[in-house]
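[job 0417] fold request received: Pyrimidine-nucleoside phosphorylase
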Amino acid sequence: MRMLDIIQNKKHGMELSAEEIDFFVQGYTKGEIPDYQASALLMAIWFKGMSEAETANLTKSMVNSGDTLDLSGIKGVKVDKHSTGGVGDKVSLVVIPLVAALGIKVAKMSGRGLGHTGGTIDKLGSIPGFNTSITMDQFISNVNSHGMAIVGQTANLVPADKKLYALRDVTATVDSIPLIASSIMSKKIASGSDAIVLDVKVGSGAFMKTIEDARTLARAMVGIGNNLGRRTIAILSNMDEPLGSEIGNANEVREAILTLKGEAEKDLINVACAIAAQMAVAGGAFTDVSEAEKAVMELITSGKAVDFLAELVEIQGGDKRVIYDPELLPKAGFVIPVVSEKEGYVHSIMAEEIGTAAMLLGAGRETKEDEVDHSAGITLKKKVGDRVEKGDVLCILMTNRENHDAALSKAHEAYVVTEVPPDKVPYILDVIG
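[job 0417] inference complete; emitting structure tokens
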């Protein structure tokens, strides 16, 4: 088998066989296929696309390029979730205790953030002592005993994805649906869960800017999951403004706690409820989504799931006191209000701009080597549709950096104030699978 022939076949729009795809993935991962040939194939895929079978085979081969998690030691159905990335997205912190409280096993593997979107592992890092580097034996034991656990991604999980993503980033082939879908799903399949709920973000603060592109990606990922024996459901949720009112690591932990008490913004509560309900159905606790949503909302109203979050923190070495007293979480030295220069209504909050502002404050990373400041972040005081008077505080910046001019400018740019209120957009845009 020759790499040149594989490139030729895809260039002419032919469907690649499982053997051809595996030859490419394994050869490139081992360094036997040079970057220039891999780049040529990626560009051919960008132009010609891939069938559902090809995308599933690509995902399977990527999974087999490294370690996979064997969760057979966990009794019952294991459920995982994944978000395609958004600003203020602390949904994992909310749904893990909610779903565990319903008796479903949640075996969650998460990553760190890069750029304007935050990572769940970074958020949990703001809780003193919380350990996301527990051994696999401890991970499995925690899920069996407590119904939940969360761990950071292992170094050798899907190495093919790490190499291919780096190459896609410098060859303008990132925005290919089959390549995006296989990248996301290879990590979820390798993580070992039986069922996967995908939160596909749509809008200005998401990778997928339009509902049409988001549906295409969601269908591709659901197809991969089902092809590879995982029950997979995708929810399309609105990311035309940040989710909730808090952006930043400690900030988002505080808001997750409030959400579990039913005291957060409606958009966050509704999105978390929808995802938790789908996870509960995928895990077999309910057959009807509306019944599952009702049970989730009862947990939120009662506040019982807060105790499950405290339990998650405790079993992974963290100080559970912060869950009952969020004032113990890190606080920044500088607090800077962002003031409206006009009156009207908040027409939009450009989530990507707000996310970039938070990164400039220290809440995120521009490069993988950057250290995250867990106390840095932004609190939104006005959301889309709110009435604003001149001089009103739109949001508050928190940082330990003395120079925060760039972040202040970005936050100002993010708010669009107009004379008339905007049309309402639903929080959940579609469910696929």
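[job 0417] notes: The mean pLDDT is 93. The longest strand covers residues 195-202.
[job 0417] exit 0
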